[in-house]
Automatic annotation (TrEMBL):
UniProt similarity note: Belongs to the UPF0178 family.
InterPro entries hit by this protein: UPF0178
Species classification: Bacteria, Pseudomonadati, Pseudomonadota, Gammaproteobacteria, Oceanospirillales
Protein name: UPF0178 protein SAMN04487954_11274
């Protein structure tokens, strides 16, 4: 049975609720990893793993534990790339699947935007998490879980 790994430090609450409900409904283990305790309902299938504070401590813990066939839910592109290298599947909280065919281009664009920001260019931040994003994520997660059933 694959495990759902969640980069919980930046996971929107609405996405967290969707993941908890999906894990319970499908009896799929889910682990929320963060540098602080994540409030979760009592569950046989859902747990929280608090790691030591420090730059990328949660990411490092996920990469160490994730296995081929597991699903990582994150919007952190370097973490996504590391998980893909370990043959895990990766989905953003907006329901986008990241894989070998698109991760390098996404990381390069992120790096380019960081360079622009460092040079003083105002690029704006990510758009807010909308109802449409929630629906897309819930549907994508349901599709992924249905393929595993």
């Amino acid at each position: 049975m694959p495990t759902l790994w969640v980069d919980a430090d930046a996971c929107p609450r609405a996405a967290r609720d969707i993941i908890v409900r999906a894990a319970e409904r499908t009896a799929t283990p889910a682990c929320f990893v963060a540098n602080h305790q994540i409030p979760l309902p009592p569950s046989r299938w859902v747990k929280s793993l608090a790691v030591a504070s420090g730059f990328d401590a949660a990411d490092d813990e996920i990469v160490e534990r994730i296995q081929s066939g597991d699903l990582l839910i994150t919007s952190d592109l370097p973490l996504a790339m590391a998980a893909i290298e370990r043959e895990a599947k990766v989905m953003t909280t907006r329901g986008e699947m990241l894989d070998q065919s698109n991760i390098k281009a996404r990381v390069q664009m992120r790096d380019f935007m960081e360079t622009l920001r460092a040079s003083g260019e105002h690029t704006g931040g990510p758009k807010g998490y909308s109802d449409g994003d929630r629906r897309e994520f819930a549907n994508a997660l349901d599709r992924w879980l249905a393929k595993r059933a």
